[in-house]
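Take a protein:
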Amino acid sequence: MEKILIIDDEAFIRENVERILREDGYTVLGAASGREALEQVGDEDVDLVLLDLNLGPEDGIEVLKELRKFDPELLVIIITGFGSVESAVDALKLGAFHYMKKPFKADALRVIVKLALQTQSLKREVRNFRKGDLELFEKVPMVGASPAQLDINRQVREIARFPASTVLITGESGTGKELVAKAIHHLSDRREAPFIEINCASIPVNLLESELFGHERGAFTDAGQRKLGLFEEANKGTIFLDEVGEMDPAMQAKLLRVLEERRIRRVGGTRNIDIDVRVIAATNRNLQKSIKEGHFREDLYYRLNVFPIPIPPLRERREDIPVLATFYLELFNRAFSRGFQDIEPAAIDLMRGYDWPGNIRELKNVIERICIMHSGPLLKPEHLPHELAQQNGQELTAPQTLVTDLALGLEEATERYESALIRQALDQTGGNVLQTAQLLKVPRGTLRYKMGKYGL
């Protein structure tokens, strides 16, 4: 239920507005001064503020500044009987959502409040939207013909019907764990709410708690304002904890408490906040082995492992390779307008015979690289990387692997090849920059420069 704070030094105005908004089901708080208002905002999760610009001896514009400083995302509607164009412009410049003059009709107030709260919800959704694989989500992980893939599809549809159950997805890097998580979310009743993802291995230990649970203003050095954590951002939706096996033991204990109590406490906060979130975790580690070694909590494992979905590596479901290759060829062919129509049977045979240590991610990157460097109408064996032919006991000549569109010119063709080579090396090292630099025999700084240049 949304909370609305009314800041007005006239009690009868507060009471009338409170009555109108409570009839619409909102929780309404009141404050007669700026100081009282800031205390309310500090103690409560306020979604919207109605602020009178004329607060007796106080300047409403200054109160607006303080509110925005405390919480930049807070929406504020200005109400005043002493309005002017200048004060309206000043308020809007400071981030006020709307400007209303007294007296105003109840219906007009209801409309503006509803619009403001809808805008807040949309802003959060846009902020949390992740680009890049929406089209992939709609078809993958449903792409595949192997019994293993069909079983995964069945499990995804089944667990999506139970939007509160925790899910643990396991499998090697690149097998599509994130796509499975997104499929569960978008097939469930939570699909209209946010899907929030975080890689637990990519956030420093000392920052992960604040990232997940948020923090209050002044909780630590540089905490100049309140910050909502990802669990709050994901409320009513799904939070995806990728590489949960890398989580620090102290954070494991805090995550366990959240899963048991379904509430969080911001860093530096004094009260618990109820949350309604489905937790999906994923890992490429053997968590049972990590438990025996003392690196992962057994009680947390059982909390996460309510509904396990193991994903086999691509080498164990080779029937899926031609289907996935065709899917990605169609996808990147459209994206780059390259004119590919099909894959030669010999190329399919090479792909089926390769073990794909990077799994689906490696296959996707190979097809993308081919579509960048070559044109159709057929994807041929000579378009494939050396390692595919070598594992199959064949060898491709260097001139064949470098065939490209001569119309590009030497400089652009060289850049495309260099970009593809770096991408291939990154795939092989799992994205480790230091190892990639060593593999390519270039300084790490040079590699970082080129990765930035090519958007890798």
